[in-house]
């Protein structure tokens, strides 16, 4: 086998190992750092409108995702919409548990009507502010970029 072919094969393997190593390194760093989530409550009297259900659609909120290292084992961000704590609105917080994604109709004792209450759970930084659709769009863009880089590496060698 000519040296140039042997060298190209080794170079390609090294590039593949480098890409795989970078992916594993990013996964390791992601798993060791705490997740950041929006944390707010519409029943908070100091900033009641900063935590509405659609706060990113109508304005740019002052809220920023906060580090969840104060919640033991926090791996998830939760967005709860509905009736809670004597109010109707939204609540966003960090959680160590995956509460799932679902909606229910709730009628508390003494209520005349049923209220729709929804829980949305996600596991990426700041994901409990935007809709799930925009999170999926971001993921699709990242995957397309990685695929594009992979194809570029393959065509060069």
UniProtKB/TrEMBL annotation:
Cellular-component GO terms for this entry: side of membrane
Spans through the membrane: 136-153
Pfam family, one: QVR
Keyword Transport tagged: no
CDD domains: TFP_LU_ECD_Bou
Keyword annotations from UniProtKB, A to Z: Glycoprotein, GPI-anchor, Lipoprotein, Membrane, Signal, Transmembrane, Transmembrane helix
Any single GO BP term: regulation of synaptic transmission, cholinergic
InterPro entries assigned: QVR-like, Sleep_regulator
Subcellular location: Membrane
Name of the molecule in the record: Putative omega-scoloptoxin-ssm1a
Organism: Anopheles triannulatus
